[in-house]
Amino acid sequence: MTSLSNLLLATCVTLCGLHAGSARAAELHRDDVLGTSLDLRIDAPAAQAAAAQHAALAEIERLDAVLSRWRADSELSRFNASSGPQRLSGDLRAVLRLCEEWRARTEGLFSCRLGTLAQRWRQAQESGVLPTREELRALASAAANAEVGLDDREPVTRPQAVVFDVDALAKGYIIDHALAAARAAAPAATAIGLDIGGDARYWQASGAGQPWPVGVADARAPRDNRPALATVALRSQAIAASGHATRVYTVGRRQYSHVLDPWSGWPMQFAPSATVVAPDASSADALATALSVIPIRSGLELADAMPDVAALILSDTGTAFASQRWPALLVATDGAATAPEQLVIDYQVPNLASERYHAPYLAMWIAREDGSPVRQLLVLGERSRYLQDLPQWWRRYGRDDLPAIQGIARPTRMPGRYSVAWDGRDDRGHALPRGAYRVQVEAARQGGGHEFLSVPIDTGQGSAFPTKAQGSGEIGSLQVLRP
After folding, report:
1. E-strand stretches of 127-247
2. Which residues, in sequence order, are CB contacts of 104 under 8 Å at separation 6+?
3. Which tens digit of pLDDT belongs to each residue from 62-92?
4. Whole-model pTM above 0.85?
5. What's the pLDDT score for residue 222?
6. Distance set, CA 81 to CA 41, 78, 140, 290, 298 (Å)
7. CA dihedral of 405, 408, 414, 416, whole degrees rounded to 10
8. How far apart are CA 203 and CA 211, in angstroms?
9. How far apart are alpha carbons 476 and 350 in whole angstroms?
10. 273 - beta bridge partners?
11. Does an H or E element contain 312, and which?
12. How far is CA 433 from CA 36, 89, 333, 374, in A?
């Protein structure tokens, strides 16, 4: 069954500490579980570990029979084929309710109502004829506007316009329940890790051993032999990823992402990929899918607004954007600062005399001494036409990844004093070694001038702050200081 194996590319690496060295650790590997592979590790007495393995596999098989859209005999398939009221199991009702909750939380950008659209794209793949945008938009609108009632214990009637496709969170839901079944069967267990096709949830008894080190693959182009982008340390947490590269609709000679825009029905273009850490697997699964549809800035804000959630988003060409909690999960690499420098950069948009004043487009980033960029801090201005008037920034960031830049750009600002912070990390959240860097600021104004300011800073121990600089045109004063 391939449907529940959505593009989840975080890869578990060799375990350490208690998990790697425990004499009573039991490991199980199975292929062809939910259309992919399963790895289960349990630190428990042998008899309990065996019981836990059996319980986890049984729970996966039970829920597969409920939630699979690839099995004609599943409860979900029967419900999608029905036209009258149906009494749903608690699990199917719970998953559909989670789908609707996530749909509301993302203002419709995450949706499990897209089964009809997916069917239409599969038909197009078979026939080689693209559907019209008007047809897709009508199908998407009908699904979005349908009334779905999921009252407890009441029969549920599926709206005619909606075919439910719960793949975006079903595997996470199954993992959560399989891990709970394993825990119940092994009350003396101290740690359990369950990975299905890269979606994973880990559990530890309080105070038990070291965290689980988990390698994060590039969700845009997963390769088994590629080094991990990062390694995160997880305790009782789940991880999931979603991307667009490896699952596509092929129509004629062109390929289209399997991730569909819920409003237009058209496959997403230039869409980001995301890896998410959350307290449970269904949340990680759903949010990873949502972040591959939501504009990058909005996706980061959503992740930051949710307790105990962290995310790494990669744009279509690989530009990285880390949520606020992501860096705290990273395993330090050799040479990285253990306590990265925290700096505040105060900058000024000067008040310039002009017959018709336009607020400047402005970009700010951190670079090494040789000019190579390490962290993008700020982009002001949302029209690509004028962003190209920032040539230094454009060559380093914007030119190769404009959709991502538009996803994080903020409106321009009128004259005044403003501040941004730098936490001493690069775009992927890794702590940078202390040393010499540059604060690069570039501004351009319609009907005005252009200015580029490069301010050297040193984050080494004993370095003097504040560092001050003064622009001469489109950039006013700039000050870098420790908070």
Report:
1. 191-196, 199-204, 212-216, 230-234, 238-242
2. none
3. 999 999 988 999 999 999 999 889 999 999 9
4. no
5. 52
6. 38, 5, 19, 27, 36
7. -110
8. 9
9. 5
10. 314
11. strand 310-314
12. 40, 54, 10, 12
Distances in Å between the alpha carbon of 31 and those of 34, 38, 144, 309? 9, 6, 37, 30
- Structure token digits, residue 457: 């800073």
How far, in Å, are 33, 161, 353 from residue 39 at the CA level?
Answer: 10, 38, 66
The reported pLDDT for the residue numbered 308 is 95
Residues with Cβ within 8 Å of 380's Cβ and at least 6 positions away in sequence, in order, are: 359, 360, 361, 362, 363, 409, 410, 411, 412, 413
* CA dist., res. 271 & res. 314, Å (int): 9
Whether the CB-CB separation of 45 and 23 falls below 8 Å is answered with no
pLDDT at 185: 97
Give the whole-angstrom CA distance, residue 449 versus residue 442. 11
- Rounded distance between C-alpha atoms, residue 354 and residue 352, angstroms: 6
Q: How far apart are CA 313 and CA 291, in angstroms?
A: 8
Question: 240, 217 in Cβ contact below 8 A?
Answer: no
Q: Using an 8 Å Cβ cutoff, are 259 and 289 in contact? A: yes
The C-alpha atoms of residue 344 and residue 102 are separated, in whole angstroms, by: 35
**pLDDT for the residue 91:** 96
* Distance, CA of 242 to CA of 201 (rounded, Å): 16
Q: Which of 239, 75, 258 is closest to 158 using CA atoms?
A: 75
Q: Would you state the structure tokens that stand for residue 7, as one six-digit string? A: 């593009």
Query: Which tens digit of pLDDT belongs to each residue from 27-68?
Result: 999 988 998 889 999 999 999 999 999 999 999 999 999 999
Q: Which residue has the higher pLDDT, 478 or 24?
A: 478
pLDDT tens for 275-289 read: 999 999 999 999 999
CA 41 to CA 213: how far, in whole Å? 13
Q: What is the pLDDT of residue 384?
A: 67
For residue 213, list its beta bridge partners: 233
Q: Collapse the DSSP code of 345 into the 3-class scheme (helix H, G, I; strand E, B; otherwise coil) and give the result.
A: strand
Contact 383, 454 (CB under 8 A): no
Distance CA 377, CA 480 (A): 13
Distance of alpha carbon 253 from alpha carbon 108, whole angstroms: 31
Can you tell me whether residue 183 is helix, strand or coil? helix
Whether 380 and 362 have beta carbons less than 8 Å apart is answered as yes
Share of the chain above pLDDT 70, in %: 87
Residue 100 to residue 110: CA distance in whole angstroms: 9
Instruction: Say if CB 48 and CB 189 are below 8 A apart.
Output: yes
CA distances from 347 to 303, 411, 467, 476 (A): 28, 16, 12, 7
Give helix 167-185 / helix 90-105 axis angle, nearest 10°: 130
pLDDT beyond 80 at 398: no
Structural tokens at position 390 = 């920032």
Q: What's the token pair of residue 170?
A: 């079903």
**197, burial (CB in 10 Å: exposed 0-12, middle 13-18, buried 19+):** buried
Phi and psi of 376, rounded to 5°?
A: -90, 125
